[in-house]
Amino acid sequence: MLSSEPGLAKNIMSIGKESELEGMQAVSNAVAITLKEMRAYAKPGMSAKELDDFGGQLLKDLGAQSAPHLAYRFPGYTCISINQEIAHGIPSANKILQEGDLVNVDVSAELNGFWADNGGSFVLGEDIHSHQALVDASKDILHKAIYQTKAGVRIAHIGKIIETEAKKRGFTVIRNLAGHGVGRSLHEEPSDILNCYDRFNRKRFKNNTTVAIETFIATKSSKALTQADGWTLVGNQGGFVAQHEHTIMITNDEPVILTATNGIWE
User: Is 214 annotated in some ligand binding site?
Assistant: First the structure.
């Protein structure tokens, strides 16, 4: 996820032949492996830039290009958001990771004309600030939402699941960020896979299309606000947000989790 503004998504990726599925799986593996390795590499005292440089080299070694840098000239290979930052955090050298931080890493890339997106929040080291319950809620809710996603299901229904499950756990959702189609570009239709119920959205998921489903589960806020740097998002009411994301292929039955190797559900 880098931008979910309506109007930016134009195309829709539909898997029509084996080579397209292979292409989507290859780029999905690249972003998934990079995300998993970055999580394992992150240590207290490390700068976000050092972590980002590690991720950028991994993508390069896998033959992939950073999607944020390629599509938006984002100042980093990946988005690294810490504590009160929701998303699009710039991985700067003066942003130092500390024990107990709530860290989000979002990795998206292009490989041989195919694009994929995934991300995950985690507690760095010991959970001294009690963020783990929020992280677990985000992971669990994403799992439930994804396994309710199939061809013919209303997009709004998935938003309702996410919002309802968050409320059950005492959390809110960020209502102006969304999952999106992904495949031949970073952001495609549908561009409005929200974390909340939109009764006016009558669109349904289509068979053999590829989308990035993501959760934004919050302790206090309901809206993301852009900071002065033009990238970093924070909550309108403060607090913390956990995000998890998979790229999947929609089917008439269970979805294919293309980024499964990222290990965010482990």
Answer: yes
- Is 88 annotated as ligand-binding? yes
Q: Is 106 annotated as a binding residue?
A: yes
**Domains contained in the chain, number:** 1
Average pLDDT over residues 145-152: 98
Angstrom distances, CA of residue 2 to CA of 80, 88, 116, 224: 11, 6, 12, 13
Report if residue 10 sits inside a domain: no
How many Å apart are CA 122 and CA 264, to the nearest integer? 9
pLDDT in tens, 169-184: 999 999 999 999 999 9
Please state, in angstroms and rounded to a whole number, the distance separating the CA atoms of residues 193 and 200. 13
pTM over 0.90: yes
Has residue 264 been placed in a domain? no
Q: Give the span between the Cα atoms of 95 and 108, in whole angstroms.
A: 21
Task: Determine phi and psi for 190, rounding to 5 degrees.
Answer: -75, 140
What pLDDT is attached to residue 13? 81
- Domain range for 225: 18-259
